[in-house]
Design goal:
Layout: H1 7-19, H2 23-68, H3 70-93, H4 109-118, H5 121-130, H6 143-177, H7 179-202
Helix pairs in contact: 1-6, 2-3, 2-4, 2-5, 2-6, 3-5, 3-7
Length: 204
């Protein structure tokens, strides 16, 4: 379909990619808890913008460059793994009342969510290594193929972000009324981030 190798698998891969706990999800939750629905949706658009930048960078040849220089790619992986592990470790050690690990400022939800996405090693690894696997080298139709992939990613991210924002908005008042729940969720997110960082470092 449009030069995409197994479009169905591509859609499933994007959904799984979105659902993996990481800085992007935390940015959506934090923005919603601070800015309500508008803050959460602004952050969602920021994540979409960051994803589009990374995807078109891959199209422009960054992925091929990293493939030609494995050391550079390994460095990106290790830096990303270290970042995730550090973020998760800070969350595990955080105490009630501490400054948020992801300190997103009001009225900057779009900008900060986009920057978090651009620096998110999960996103970098996906677009630079995994994303090109879905391009059929024989049937690909140039910009049309990439445009369809970009539109699919944007639509799925919007729907996922909308769902996450609505759930976060519904739960926000309950979480604020019980500090223990907030602390537990932060430590749980820390465990996921630390585990994913270790998994990424091991290349598994």
């Amino acid at each position: 379909m449009f030069g995409i190798a197994d479009y169905g698998a591509f859609v499933v891969a994007i959904i799984i990619f979105l659902a993996i706990p990481g800085p992007g999800n935390l940015a959506l939750i934090t923005s919603t808890s601070k800015g309500g629905l508008l803050g959460g949706m602004a952050a969602t658009l920021g994540v979409i913008a960051g994803d589009q930048v990374l995807m078109w960078m891959a199209v422009a040849g960054v992925a091929a460059l990293l493939s030609a220089y494995p050391t550079a790619f390994n460095l990106v992986q290790w830096m990303g793994a270290a970042y995730l592990a550090w973020l998760g470790f800070k969350m595990l050690l955080a105490k009630p009342g501490d400054k948020p690990v992801l300190n997103i400022q009001p009225r900057q939800y779009f900008k900060q969510a986009m920057m978090i996405t651009l620096l998110n090693p999960k996103a970098i690894v996906f677009y630079m290594a995994f994303f090109p696997l879905f391009v059929d080298p024989v049937k690909q139709q140039g910009l049309l193929t990439y445009a369809v992939m970009a539109a699919t990613i944007a639509l799925l991210t919007f729907l996922y972000g909308l769902t996450a924002v609505l759930i976060s908005h519904y739960m926000a008042s309950r979480i604020r009324s019980n500090p223990n729940i907030s602390s537990y969720l932060q430590k749980l997110a820390g465990v996921f981030l630390l585990g994913f960082g270790i998994k990424l470092a091991l290349g598994k």
